[in-house]
């Protein structure tokens, strides 16, 4: 039993140590890792663009927790945060032992989004649904559903696409897309960019709280596949999927793991088993004192690292101008945080092992009268 407990306690430590080996790009972009891939992309129509300056952001499968599982985030039109900015969709990619979600972002160029063909101008590379021209966004009517009485900046260009259309929603792994980033896409990913705007974040939260959008409920065919505006799930512009896709089953073991903590303030005290009762009052009191001393020490170390990391952030200029410097700093902070968490976990394990009573107490000697 003790051996099994030690194994269970060691597994989080091994995971923490393993996270240290991840690259900066992977760490900075993913929010959750899942051991099985997302469903295929459903088929749906694009709602009409509500107004000039709105750019299409395709729908995708997100992951909440074990009870939510994968849920569909409807595609929607979003007003660009700045003139000249385009949307790079997020995507799921195989990270070696789990699927990692790479967050989408706004930037002057479209970066890598896994080669996933989301449709409506997002065919695996770049965006062919429109372009910025003289401070105004022009829509390619070949792939964007616009009302010409509202949006007069339009053109028609058909992109020659000789690749097989795929509804696979992830890159790498078994059955995944094998496309890799081009040099231009890698450069775009390193340029100044900003994350999802507030309307997009609220849109995702609304999708997560809607049980009908979970793959376990809609079987890959979401009843709300796209909306005209973020969060407008019940308005007339919302459309349902015409065709669903294959839903992958979760393995019997471990389905998902939360993202690792990046900063010391996100760390929680290390979980520990109750102090063993040895039957010796003085020994038990000493064990409790040792545990309290370790708890106090670890709390101080977390607070010290937190203060240091906050000072690092204070030295940077305000966002979004600090984006080029933010990523390496956050990588450094995650390494510090992960190392501290691993150290504290190991300390707790060592203390608990030290406090365990002897496995076998010395057997009492038999008296001569007790012999038969």
Short overview:
It contains 7 helices and 18 strands.
What features would you describe in this structure?
- The model is unreliable at 1-30, 319-323 and 359-372 (pLDDT under 50).
- The strands form 6 sheets. The protein has a 5-stranded mixed β-sheet.
- Helix 1 (2-19) packs antiparallel against helix 7.
- The protein is built from 7 helices and 18 strands.
- Strand 12 (130-133) and strand 13 form a beta hairpin.
- It has 372 residues and is α+β, with helices and mostly antiparallel strands.
- The chain has 2 domains: 35-258, no CATH class; 264-351, no CATH class.
Key traits:
disordered C terminus; disordered N terminus; 2 domains; three-stranded mixed β-sheet; alpha+beta; five-stranded mixed β-sheet; single chain; 16% strand; 372 residues; 7 helices
Taken together, the total number of domains comes to 2
Strand order of the largest sheet: 15-7-8-1-18
Mean pLDDT: 81
Secondary-structure content class: alpha+beta
Major sheet attributes: 5 strands, mixed
Low-confidence stretches: 1-30, 319-323, 359-372
The backbone outline, from C-alpha atoms, is elongated
The radius of gyration over CA amounts to 27 Å
Distance between the termini: 36 Å
Taken as a percent bin, the fraction of beta residues is 15-25%
What is the number of E strands? 18
Share in helix: 25-40%
Number of helices: 7
Order of helices and strands: HHEEEEEEEEEEEEEEEHEHHEEHH
Please write out the topology:
Blueprint: H1 2-19, H2 24-29, E1 30-34, E2 54-57, E3 60-63, E4 70-73, E5 75-79, E6 86-88, E7 91-94, E8 99-102, E9 105-107, E10 117-119, E11 122-123, E12 130-133, E13 136-140, E14 154-155, E15 170-171, H3 183-189, E16 193-194, H4 198-208, H5 215-218, E17 226-227, E18 256-258, H6 281-315, H7 323-355
Helix pairs in contact: 1-7, 6-7
């Amino acid at each position: 039993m003790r051996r099994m407990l030690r194994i269970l306690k060691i597994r989080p430590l091994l995971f923490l140590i393993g996270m240290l080996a991840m690259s900066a790009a992977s760490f900075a972009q993913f929010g959750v890792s899942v051991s099985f891939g997302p469903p295929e992309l459903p088929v749906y129509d694009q709602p009409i663009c509500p107004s000039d300056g709105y750019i299409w952001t395709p729908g995708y499968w997100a992951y909440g927790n074990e009870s939510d599982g994968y849920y569909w985030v409807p595609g929607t039109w979003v007003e660009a945060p700045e003139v000249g900015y385009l949307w790079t969709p997020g995507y799921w990619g195989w990270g070696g032992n789990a699927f990692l979600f790479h967050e989408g972002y706004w930037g002057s160029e479209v970066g890598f989004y896994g080669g996933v063909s989301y449709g409506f101008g997002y065919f695996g590379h770049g965006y062919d649904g429109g372009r910025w021209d003289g401070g105004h966004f022009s829509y390619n009517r070949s792939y964007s559903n616009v009302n010409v009485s509202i949006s007069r900046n339009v053109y028609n260009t058909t992109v020659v696409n000789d690749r097989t259309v795929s509804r696979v929603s992830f890159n790498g792994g078994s059955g995944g897309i094998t496309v890799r980033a081009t040099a231009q896409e890698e450069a775009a990913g390193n340029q100044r960019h900003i994350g999802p705007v507030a309307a997009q974040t609220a849109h995702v939260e609304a999708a997560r709280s809607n049980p009908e959008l979970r793959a376990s409920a809609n079987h890959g065919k979401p009843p709300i596949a796209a909306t005209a505006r973020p969060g407008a799930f019940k308005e007339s512009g919302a459309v349902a999927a015409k065709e669903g896709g294959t839903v992958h089953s979760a393995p019997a073991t471990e389905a998902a793991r939360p993202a690792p903590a990046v900063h010391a303030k996100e760390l929680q005290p290390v979980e520990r088993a109750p102090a063993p009762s040895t039957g010796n009052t003085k020994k038990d009191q000493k064990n409790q004192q040792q545990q309290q001393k370790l708890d106090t020490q670890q709390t101080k170390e977390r607070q010290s690292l937190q203060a240091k990391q906050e000072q690092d952030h204070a030295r940077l200029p305000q966002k979004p101008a600090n984006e080029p410097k933010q990523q390496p700093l956050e990588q450094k902070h995650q390494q510090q945080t992960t190392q501290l968490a691993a150290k504290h976990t190991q300390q707790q394990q060592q203390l608990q092992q030290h406090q365990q009573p002897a496995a076998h107490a010395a057997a009492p000697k038999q008296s001569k009268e007790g012999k038969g």
